[in-house]
Amino acid sequence: MFETGPNWRRDAAFGVVLIAVMIAIPFLGPSRYFIGQLTLFFIWATVVSQWNLVFGVAGIFSLAQMAIFAFGGFATGMMGLYLGISLWFALVLAGVGSILFSIIIGLACLRLRGPYVALLTLAIAQVMYLLIITDTACFYMEGVTCRNFTGGTRGLAKFGDFGFREMLGRREYLKGDYYLSLFLLVLATVFSFAIIRSPLGFAFRALRDNPEYGVSRGLNRFKYQLLVFAMSAFFTGLAGGVFAGHFRVIGANVLSLPLLLFLISMMVVGGLGRAWGPILGAALVMLADEGMKDFVEIRNMGYGALIVAIVVLLPQGAAGGLEQVWEWGRRQVLALWGGTGRLAARRGAAGEERRE
Amino acid sequence: MERTASEPLLSCQGVDKYFGALAAVRDMTFDVFPGEALGIGGPNGAGKTTLFDVISGLNPATAGSITFDGRTITRATPDRTCQLGMARTFQLNAGFDTLSARENTLIAAYFGRHNRLVPGMRFDRETQRLADEAMEFVGLDEVAHEATQTLPVYHRKLLMVAGALATQPKMLLMDEPVGGLNPQEIDDVMALVRRLKERGLTIMLIEHVMRFLVRLSDRVLIMHHGEKIFEGSASGLVYDKTVVDVYLGEGSSRRLRHLLEDQPSPDEGAPGAP
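Predict the joint structure of the above. Result:
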């Protein structure tokens, strides 16, 4: 029921199989649409895996994650466009910048508690959204067209991409983005697994469970909560940058409320605070979304139904449910083994009787 | 006694704690010497727990000064006082509910001993050894892998003590360690506290169960309305008119007197207060 046991062998085996399958998929001749959707899945799962550290593991109700994602995306795009540097270089700088951005948000938020953190972080994201869509000032002229600093309602574009088009050609370039985002997800997931299972992860969970008791056992609340903010920002910012490079455009819509809810539902469906939660949740919610594409009228209702079903039937999320199935299966196997064990025990008991 | 010769481990000088105009703790001055057990009693709302909050840094003092082990800790944060060697248990069943009992103790052993500038990737051997030792000392090794939220009250109380011990404290502050326990469990905790004293641990304990308080404490301090109304030996307690009037009442003080003289008494319960 609790992620306490050192199941790292199982997790590593599962992870390796999953990575192998994902590496193989582009060679099986899937459609461009399928590859594109999987790329998006890797990006969202990356974001959710880091959000899960803040929200699920450390229990801080932060909604800043999409603001950090947008920061990473816009920073990558702007550096590519205005400084003319390689998007790869811009991506790394944006990732580091995201950490600083997140620390600033963290410093503002962590004096607050519970729902107030959610309100402030949501406000930050909304302010960013409004600043971008109301940006009408001409930053530079492109011929007779006026271009805004942030791209305004049109979105920021023309900053190029990661160079896969040139390298792989127009037909194959999607695979470049595919592997790049897969690589990002693998790194982000390994990172979050390592954090969750390390003393640091225990510190986060301890402060989530009981902050007062935590500080009385030597945990500096401010330090560790700021640390989880900073740590979760790097891969989130990188995901934003990869998103921008993949679509070759980034706009204020990444800060929209529906997208925010889409990603939160991934976290809830997967299981808050669970190591495998983000990947499972992102997969399930994107599959559900895919399944409901043809029924636009009931799409939102469908989401609602999915979340209600998960919360009622699997309060620990899909990852928690699977964990229970795994434990049940293990007990069955152990019971089978125990059959022979019991035989040995009976023999032992018989021996003792003889001695008497 | 050699106590007068040695330096106090904890020293509070004129400590005040105000919540607005309300004085929860007023002008508290007392010392606790190494190896000593100081019992703190008093009616509900007397400021006993607030005093613990002030000393441990959870709710810093408004005025006065507190020194611990030669350092001024008046403004120290609770994580710092813990790392300096002052461990505390709580009146309510505090713990990290979703973690296992052993993980609770591991966290205390890892973060509670000294400041971790950059935490490592795993709990080191020393931390694991200290945590397991603490669990065994209080007798929780059997339930080490159970989830904290599923443990019964008695085990949760012991788990707080295990967590405190795992931080390798010089001093233990126990806030109502036997509140809500049955007589058998109270006796078991009493035996545990005796073993802690034998290990040389300095103890401050708050308790309403008077037989627990007077039997374990070398000295007793009684608070009322945030102030100290008595400080001295447990035997002096029952003859002090103010204490009898304010807290114990005639009946309980008579029963306690019997208890202190080691005579069987009709019932050994808490006085006036629950």
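Chain A has a mean pLDDT of 88.
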